[in-house]
TrEMBL record:
One of its GO terms (cellular component) is membrane. It is found in: Membrane. It is a multi-pass membrane protein. It comes from the Bacteria. Pfam families: Colicin_V. Keywords: Membrane, Transmembrane, Transmembrane helix. One of its GO terms (biological process) is toxin biosynthetic process. Its main location: membrane. This is Colicin V production protein.
Length: 181
């Protein structure tokens, strides 16, 4: 086990423990909250923007930004609140330990995905500027399994990154995924 393994193990352990304590319902609610918050703020912040424009004497660029931020935070808050209520209900229904165990698994997967996304950009950077030697990466037990998660889940993002030249075509990220992308 080398330094790369220790860093990845700590990230995965954090996701596991955090997911266990929060539970599956709260973990899913936080993820859904962020996605729904972005979507809702994009599509519904105009309601607050119109209200602020009529009732406040602010510049329109500030009104739109403030309306977007308030809508985003409000949606995240409401969905997180619903997740906490569902978690409490699961506890009352004697599903507390199941919720916690599933939350641990979901938290682990979520952090593995986040680590994999970071590895995607790290690998592209490491090709140009060697931050970690190839030998250390090859010796790592966790690097290869975690590395393939995001490219398997997000092939369309990789395709767009390649089209915009954000990632080099010959980067090791694409070694196994060239046929799929």
């Amino acid at each position: 086990m080398n330094t790369v393994d220790i860093v990845l193990a700590l990230i995965l352990l954090y996701g596991l423990v955090r997911g266990f304590f929060r539970g599956l319902l709260a973990e899913i609610a936080s993820l859904v909250g962020i996605v729904a918050g972005i979507y809702g703020a994009i599509h519904f912040s105009y309601i607050l923007s119109d209200f602020f424009s009529e009732n406040m004497n602010w510049d329109s660029e500030y009104v739109n930004l403030i309306a977007f931020a308030i809508t985003f935070v409000l949606i995240i808050f409401l969905i997180s609140l619903a997740g906490k209520i569902l978690t409490k209900m699961a506890g009352f229904a004697a599903l507390g330990i199941v919720n916690k165990l599933l939350g641990a698994g979901f938290g682990l997967l979520k952090m593995a995905f986040i680590a994999s996304v970071i590895i995607m950009f790290f690998a592209a950077t490491n090709e140009e500027i060697e931050l970690v030697s190839k030998e250390k990466l090859e010796e790592s037990k966790l690097y290869a399994p975690v590395k393939v998660i995001a490219p398997a889940v997000l092939p369309s993002i990789l395709r767009e990154a390649r089209e915009r030249d954000l990632l080099d075509d010959e980067s090791e990220l694409f070694e196994n995924k060239k046929e799929e992308v």
